[in-house]
Amino acid sequence: MDSELALIASTASTSLIQLAVTDSWNSAKVSLIRLWERIYPDRASVVATDLEDTQREIAGSSGDSRRTLEEGARMEWQARIGRLLTSHPEVAEEIQAIFVEFESILSTEGTPGSIALNATSSGSSRIYQLGQGTQRNG
After folding, report:
1. How far is CA 54 from CA 12, 50, 83, 88, in A?
2. Whole-angstrom distance, CA of residue 116 vs CA of residue 110
3. Which of 9, 72, 94, 118 has fewest C-beta within 10 Å?
4. Is residue 35 within 8 Å of 94, Cβ to Cβ?
5. Taking a C-beta distance cutoff of 8 angstroms, is the pair 102, 15 a contact?
C-alpha cells in the first residue's frame, strides 16, 4: 500500500474510533456499511456486526481499559480499511469524504468522557453550569 493510502486508512480508523462514543456514530457506521455493500456485498453484514461490536466494547469501557480497546480497534480498522484501499484505491476519496463530514464534531468533542464548560458574565449576572452530575453555584 502506498503512503497516501496508508495515511487515509490511519486517519479514517482514528476518526472511526473517536466517533464510537459520539452521537454521530450511527451516521459514520451507515456510511461505511454502504461503502462495503457496494464493493463487497457478501462481507457487508460481517462489517456491520463488527462495527457494532467495536462501538459496544468501547462505549462499555473506561480508563485504561478503554484506551487499550480503542488502540486495538483502531489498528484492526486501519488494517481493514487499508485492505479495502489496496484492492480498490478508487474509493480513497469517498472514505476521506465520510470522515471529513465529522471533522467539526471530532474537533469539538474533546476527550471522550470529558466535559469542557466555558462561560462569561458581566455586571451582576449569574452563571449556572452542570457537568457530569455535579452542580457548583457561586
Report:
1. 15, 6, 18, 24
2. 8
3. 118
4. yes
5. yes
Phi, psi of 136 (to 5 degrees): -125, 125
Residues with Cβ within 8 Å of 132's Cβ and at least 6 positions away in sequence, in order, are 115
In a domain? residue 124: no
Q: What is the rounded CA–CA span in Å between residue 68 and residue 115?
A: 21
**Number of domains present in the structure of the chain:** 1
Report yes or no on 15 lying in a domain.
yes
Structural element, H or E, at residue 130? strand 129-131
For residue 51, give the C-alpha cell.
462495527
Whole-prediction pTM: 0.73
